[in-house]
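To the structural biology subgroup,

Please find below the input and predicted structure for NAD(P)/FAD-dependent oxidoreductase, which we are adding to the shared reference set this quarter. The sequence is reproduced verbatim from the submission form. If anyone notices a discrepancy with their own records, reply to this email rather than editing the shared folder directly, so we keep one authoritative version.
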Amino acid sequence: MNVFDCIVIGGGPSGLSASLTLGRARREIVLFDDGSNRNRVTHESHGFITRDGIKPQEFKEIGLKELENYPSVSYFNTTITEIIKDIGNERFIVKTTDGQECVTEKIILATGIQEVFSIQSVRNYYGKSLFSCPYCDGWELRDKPLIVMAEKEEHALHMAKLIYNWSQDLVVITNGVQLSKEGVTELQKRNIKIKSEPIKNLIGNDGYLQQIEFVSGETIIRSGGFVVPSFYRPNDFAEMLGCEVQENGTVITDGVGRTTQKNIYIAGETEKSGPSSLMISAADGNKAAVSVNTDLTMERF
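Predicted structure (tokenized):
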């Protein structure tokens, strides 16, 4: 069985960037990806210089096409089911749903995160008219009648202040959570309306929001907005491999991708357990790959 220098798990911007850097360093690597990246529901990605407005799938296809220039890089569209540590973490056996087994010296975890919404109908609009990142999608919603949907006061206030830069026609919706008197005053001084009633339904067509219906029967007209979801890692590879994790879910690293476990590296949203931009995730992937290549070089020289 071939022993690879590194296996990269996850084909988002961090995994693609790491694979490109390692391919250019002439390392034998395999990139595994199952197509579950969370931006797959987004119609356009923004803020990545030279690629502003690109479709996420097109971004990925361009990245994969570039990897074809490097013969030491292999790519498989499949899901990792198991990672078995050898004695001393010197090698790992990686198994997939389609029966593949690969042995590698090092692993980069770049599997990203996924959102959780308390209102399930948000999914019907997420990526078209409801978003979570104003830096990614605020420009497209500028000056429109928007909602800010958040169920914690600190999130509602923070997001409302941010979104006010793009649109001053705002309604903050808390789905049954009462804001403090101070919080209400802070929003009202900017004429930001607050609706604390529980939400019954979101109404719209083909992914484009039109109205919010509350349990009282009242409806308000809105054409889009921003939500504050919670996030989780779609797998427990980091914990399973013994990486130390902080209470807030962030994996402890040295700042350039090395975890507390030898030969295990992490990049992008997987490390932070929180959302990140394409550009920052790609930069994280580059840093982790440089750490892998540096360690391989020093260990073998």
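Summary notes: The two ends are 24 Å apart (CA to CA). The chain has two domains: 3-113+233-300, 116-227.

Regards,
Lab coordination
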